[in-house]
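Collaborator request, handled under Task 6.
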Amino acid sequence: MDAPIKSLDGRYYTDPKVFRHETQGLLAETWQFACHSREIENTGDYTSFTIAGENLFAIRGGDNKIRVFYNVCQHRAHQLVKGAGNTRIVVCPYHAWSYDLTGALRAAPNMKAVEGFDKSAICLNEVLTEELLGFVFVNLNPKAEPMETWFPNVRAELEEWVPNWRDLKPLEWVEIPEKCNWKVSVENYSECYHCARNHPTFVSGVVKPDTYDIQPQGKCLRHTTECQALDQMSYDIQSGFAHNEAYSSWYLWPMFSFQVYPGNILNTYHWRAIDAENVVLWRGWYSIDGAEDAVVRQLAVQDRETTVEEDIHLVESVQKGLGSRGYTPGPLVIDPKGGVNSEHPIMHLQKWMRAYYKKETSHDNV
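Structure tokens returned to the collaborator:
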């Protein structure tokens, strides 16, 4: 008989050295959410953000393509843009070197005085970029495999569950700071073993817990369940689309998740790790053209006041416990049949993390 699989040691959630390795390695070599394409709808629209310690910006070109660049001038390394805005050309505030919307150097003051200056050889460093249902993702590893390889069939499934995705725009993004390691928050999200005891609104007004299951799909964890009977739902779910009466979630390892609530209501989680013991969770909700929508707003408020608030207390308590000398990792509760009362999703998450740590220890001890 095989020994039970135990959870990761507490230091993987508390040690700043481990976090530093994750930032420099894991988070720079996986697909990370950058922005929503409707934030930069017009030619020259841009927005900046930080991923894996690197400042980047996304900008829409005259060809309607969204490109993401490192936010650093190729002359003397000054930051090019701040925040969000619109521009015809990107001009460095330091020495006025300018770049077109494809990242190519356009002009530099007095460059003709420099013998052999070849402006065609100078371009901003571009980051590998993909769009998924209007969400822009980047990977700092230029040799990374495409998202379809990482997350097979997710695009097709999401397009089926959210057929009106092209019309959607963020209605609200709420930042939720949590005093815990990002993996604690992600693991809590990825199992419903705790739901019956801790999320009464979710299990009585949204999903049927006895049908809830989570299974791996590449580096995706797919959540599926039936929803409550229509007369027991906590909001109006009539959308007219397929899957109207179901819930599903696609967690894209390591830090993003799409959720589709009954009624085909799209919402998202994305995590941004701050340090070893702090993470910010962005909770996103979407409506047609970002217009006010009473049902979406009602559900967003209900979710924030129940499930989200309940989870904050859980993950912050876990983080405190992980730092205790009294903690010894216990066995995961893995039911071979899967289901709501099994921690097999945590097994998969920690398997992916262990594979990463094993790779890291081959060139530096983590």
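The cover message to the collaborator said: "The chain has a mean pLDDT of 92. The CA atoms of residues 105 and 119 lie 6 Å apart. Please let us know whether this matches your experimental observations."
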